[in-house]
Write a structure and sequence with these properties.
50% helix; Beta-Lactamase; ATP binding; alpha+beta; five-stranded antiparallel β-sheet; nucleotide-binding; Helix Hairpins; membrane; transmembrane
Length: 445
């Protein structure tokens, strides 16, 4: 499954890329402009130097004797930025700078600029045309200046990129905070939390979403309430005719001849099974309607006692159920009391049905907000245990039942954000069956 990409990450990458690309483009344009401007500045510098230097060299040449070394006196260290040659009208080199070439520059003796492969040379002549001064500026010097200027523009990008990432993350997170809040609120909505989304602090771009979600929640709340009401009314309507038919069958068994008694007994058993199946189906319907959670915290311990007391009055539960509650034991949660009663009833009835007659079913309330129901039984194959929570699936037993009890319990416990664990043998025993319901932790206070 492809992982969803974060909006924040996408925006950080996009904005940082735009900033970096814009800076690079601006730097490239700046380098291009500087290249032209630097060329003009260098040319101007070479021209002015040559024009000012020629009269000085010409005067100095007049004062020198032919035996003097033909170069100007300069410091012994350092490298010349500009080099020159003083040539006569025949092209012979009369004087040169310390780093100047011995061979004449390969350019004509024509006033103005001329280029070689490595230098840009400016030629200036005396008024009488007898002397020519050629000032050379190496292209390497110009390239070095451009590279240094370009580097000065690009180097800040190394700091700009991480700074932009941090700034964009802070701005985007702050800007998208209402989206995060709306997402969290919608994510908490379920069948037990239908409170409308608070749209008073949302920006106007998110108001239509919040309004649509609230309308959807209202429709869903109405649908769930209708379904729950239907399930409750159906339970009452189905119990009445089945109970009436069962009573008529029991009365008929007392009035008919003895030879028809087995058939009437079979009818009675069928009606009893139908009543149990109808009750389980209605419980499953209510479970699927999402009745597991509640908006308020409920003390569930009295519900356990009430359900066990009711089951204890039946023939199967008479003197067979023992409740174990530790000192200060509590069982609480944001759970619908009616739904938890269905869980307890199904677990205990399942234990009574599938344990030998006369054995005890132990109900333990743990100090960790859990409920354990333990009954006697042979050890069940561990591979079969997960299948017992599937609808209409029963283990290797001759006991009657619909195969829906544990499926109903699993569905409701999941809605309660709890867990159902089945184990055989039971904890601390060599045999038996244990169903453990663990509920979310108790709220402080």
């Amino acid at each position: 499954m492809k992982r969803s990409e974060s909006m924040t990450r996408r925006m950080v990458i996009a904005l940082t890329s735009v900033v970096a690309l814009s800076w690079l483009i601006a730097s490239a344009l700046g380098v291009m402009v500087m290249q032209d401007e630097f060329a003009e500045i260098f040319d101007s510098g070479v021209q002015e130097t040559a024009e000012r230097l020629l009269p000085l060299i010409a005067d100095d040449l007049k004062e020198r004797s032919p035996e003097d070394e033909r170069h100007l006196v300069q410091p012994a260290d350092g490298k010349e930025y500009l080099t020159y040659q003083l040539r006569d009208s025949e092209g012979e080199v009369l004087l040169r700078s310390r780093d100047g070439a011995y061979e004449p520059f390969d350019v004509p003796l024509t006033p103005g600029f001329a280029d070689t492969a490595t230098q840009r040379i400016y030629t200036v002549a005396t008024e009488d045309g007898t002397l020519y001064l050629q000032m050379a500026d190496a292209f390497a010097n110009r390239r070095e200046a451009i590279v240094e200027a370009g580097t000065a523009l690009i180097l800040p990008l190394l700091l700009l990129i991480p700074a932009s990432i941090v700034a964009v993350i802070l701005v985007v997170r702050r800007t998208l905070a209402p989206v995060q809040t709306l997402r969290d609120e919608i994510g908490r909505k379920d069948s037990g939390n239908m409170v409308p989304v608070d749209d008073t602090r949302l920006p106007k771009e998110l108001n239509p979403i919040a309004r649509s979600v609230n309308l959807l929640l209202e429709r869903l709340r109405a649908a769930l309430e209708s379904e729950r009401a239907f399930a409750s009314n159906s339970a009452h309507e189905l119990r009445t005719p089945i109970a009436g038919a069962l009573a008529q069958a029991q009365r008929l068994q007392a009035d008919i001849p003895r030879e028809f008694a087995p058939r009437v007994a079979q009818i009675e058993r069928s009606l009893s099974h139908l009543a149990q199946l109808a009750e389980k189906l209605l419980q499953m319907s209510r479970a699927e309607a999402g009745i597991g959670t509640s908006d308020v915290e409920t003390d569930l311990l009295p519900i356990v006692g009430l359900v066990l007391e009711d089951i204890g009055r039946s023939d199967k539960g008479d003197d067979r159920i023992e409740l174990h509650v530790p000192s200060g034991g509590k069982l609480r949660g944001m759970i619908n009391g009616d739904a938890f009663g269905i869980v307890v009833r199904n677990l205990v009835e399942n234990a009574l049905i599938h344990s030998p007659a006369g054995t005890t079913v132990d109900v333990h309330v743990g100090d960790d907000n859990s409920l354990r129901v333990i009954n006697d039984s042979p050890v069940i194959d561990p591979a079969l245990l997960p299948k017992l929570t599937t609808r209409f699936t029963r283990g290797t037993t001759q006991a009657t039942g619909s195969g829906l009890g544990l499926a109903i319990v699993k569905h409701l416990v999941k809605q309660m954000n709890g867990s159902l664990t089945l184990s055989s043998p039971a904890m601390g025993r060599d045999d038996g069956f244990e169903a453990r319901v663990s509920l979310p932790g108790i709220k402080a206070g």
